[in-house]
Amino acid sequence: MDNPRARGPAPPSPLWTTRGAVGAVGYVLRVNTTAHSTEAAPGRIVLLTTSHRVAPGLLSWPAWQALHAADRVLCADGAHPQLPYLREAGVTVDEAAPTAEELVAACAGGRTVVVVATGEGEPALTDGLARLAGSGRVSMPELELLPASYDLPGARLLDLVQVMDRIRAECPWSSRQTHRGLAKYAIEEAYELVESIEDGDREELREELGDVLLQVVFHARIAEEDAEEPFSIDDVAGGIVTKLIHRHPHVFGDESATTPEEVKEHWLRTKAAEKRRASVTDGIPLGQPALALAAKLASRVRTAGLDVPLPQREDIGYTLLALATEA
Q: Which of 8, 32, 86, 181 could form a disulfide with 49 if both were Cys (CB 3.0 to 4.6 A apart)?
């Protein structure tokens, strides 16, 4: 069950198999450990897992069906965030932490018991059930692993924001940082990212992308504390979402583009309308390295369709300018 969209406890043994799927996400894992043609129905155990990143009460339809149909619903954590919503929906939940043997016994006579898993995923219970199933000495009930809610792509970004909040509040170093104090790290991390790209090191690339992302989240967290013009990571994300949609009318609007050149034309046209710059050099950061600055200036001139002759002087600086312009 190696699926980032459906994170939950790992199946306790290779006996667990996928039964169904919703949007390519396996939502029920089931195992029948023994045939019971001549014995009484052994019952069923459903281990219900949820994601703490999804609002409590927002459960899948199969989960609600299992909860309402169960003979008993158990949860070891009396403070589990799902419990108030389950009880409000008419589901009786008993606070209990049975052993694997006790849980199997509770299923005797064909009863169904749903266990609402805690944040750790009940590893002791699932390991115990696996040992019982492997021993062959116990008539095992049907076992199901049912993710009631699962993470969507990008869900771990919520964890990053939460961790950053705590670090900002509790770390003696991080709590004192400012935008200016962190600026040098943004430059360093950007260079390290470029180096990892040029080296073709995938592991290093993943790590450096995380370091750059940290800079974004750190600065956004600091910005929340500004007394006059505060903004948050949600404002940052909302701004770039709006920008991307506006600058891709061929994707989100009625315009069309079939070549990279047409896409670039759309981008430049919408950017020009947004910025309303008075000069082709407006918005160019002058603090960047000299060669990068020269290349950016030359690019702006070319994009504007201007013919600006280079100074004709025998000087190393002007020679480098000419090389940067040609690059």
A: 8
